[in-house]
Amino acid sequence: MDISNENLDMYYIVESNKNFDQVVNDLEEAIKNNGFGILHIHNLGSTLRSKGVAFKEECKIFEVCNPHEAAKVLSTDMRLNMALPCRISVYTEHTSTKIGFIKPEKILSALSHNKILEETAKEVEVKIEKMLEEAKA
After folding, report:
1. Is the pTM of this model over 0.85?
2. Which of 23, 39, 58, 59 has its CA 20 to 30 A from that of 94?
3. Could you tell me the domains of the chain?
4. What Rg do the C-alpha atoms of the chain give, in angstroms?
5. What are the tens digits of pLDDT across the range 27-52?
6. Closest CA to 132 of 76, 74, 87, 84
7. Quick check: 71 and 102 in contact, CB under 8 A?
8. What is the pLDDT of residues 69-86, one digit of tens each?
9. How far apart are CA 131 and CA 111, in angstroms?
10. Looking at the predicted structure, is the pLDDT value of residue 123 above 60?
11. CA separation (Å) from 81 to 56, 59, 62, 70, 71?
């Protein structure tokens, strides 16, 4: 089964000509410059290797949040805390450095059929796309 083409509309992924570490640094700046906070950065590649897994790629997962947008979502449907925070990944794939996320609008529309939530998710999505574009450039 070729999973590379499944549900492509769920993802937003860009490729950068920069190296992994530079993209990570530039993404940190872009997140802060766009009104989001970094709650945590998981170094998935390092964690896997520390557990004895032969994993050659790099992968850092940023958990990010805009408190105002999160409050809008949670005040509408508290169950959606399970879909927060947003996650942005910087990773290598073969010789490429990529940045991507699963679109919040797709996630929230699958979990709740509320127009306000879908609009909020779309606003967040546009902001995160802007961050990725800034980080890759």
Report:
1. yes
2. 39
3. 30-136 (3.30.310.70)
4. 15
5. 999 999 999 999 999 999 999 999 99
6. 87
7. no
8. 999 999 999 999 999 999
9. 25
10. yes
11. 33, 24, 17, 8, 10
β-partners of residue 133 are: none
Rounded Cα gap, residues 69 and 20, in angstroms? 29
Do 103 and 10 meet the contact criterion of CB atoms below 8 Å apart? yes
What is the model's pLDDT at position 68? 93
Q: Which of 93, 34, 43 is nearest to 63 (CA)?
A: 43
Q: What are phi and psi of 62, to 5 degrees?
A: -95, 125
Task: Tell me, letter by letter, the H, E, C secondary structure of 19-42.
Answer: CHHHHHHHHHHHHHHCCCEEEEEE
